[in-house]
Amino acid sequence: MPPPPYTMETFRDAAAAFFGSTTGQSPRVSSYYGSLSKSFLSRPITPQNINEFVAGENRAVLTATTPATRQDLLAIAATPLRGVAAHFVAQNLVVGRHGYFADNEYSREALSGVTSGTF
User: Which of 30, 37, 54, 68 is the most exposed place for a label (fewest CB within 10 A)?
Assistant: First the structure.
């Protein structure tokens, strides 16, 4: 029996842990993470869910009315890279758990990249 898919909660926790141990987490992004519903967090990691997650992070850092901290400014500067980085991490999480031959979009994309020699 294959392992259950990673959820958006796993992804959120990985992002929070990474930034918490490097630059420090942006208070604006932390606030967004706290606002995520249980139903959203229980969804599997898919490109569509990652797009929604990234859009929420972008809104949080760009439209907040609170004074920006150093971490917020770093999060704002990272906005153009956020989607690419998020999909890279998500694909590695999914492929690491389910492999290249699983029936999900990230595994299919990774397998296509490996077999075409474009990785």
Answer: 37
Dihedral angle of Cα 41, 36, 62, 66, to the nearest 10 degrees: -150
64-96 per-position pLDDT tens digit: 999 999 999 999 999 999 999 999 999 999 999
Rg (CA), the chain: 15
Put simply, whether the predicted model's pTM sits higher than 0.85 gets the answer yes
Residue 99 in contact with residue 105, Cβ under 8 Å? no
Q: In this structure, are residues 26 and 61 in contact, taking their beta carbons and an 8 Å threshold?
A: yes
Q: What is the pLDDT of residues 19-61, one digit of tens each?
A: 888 888 999 999 999 999 999 999 999 999 999 999 999 999 9
Amino acid, res. 16: A
| CA quadruple 30, 32, 38, 42: dihedral, nearest 10 | -80
Q: CA distances (Å), 33 to each of 2, 14, 27, 57, 96, in order?
A: 29, 12, 10, 8, 24
Residue length of the chain: 119
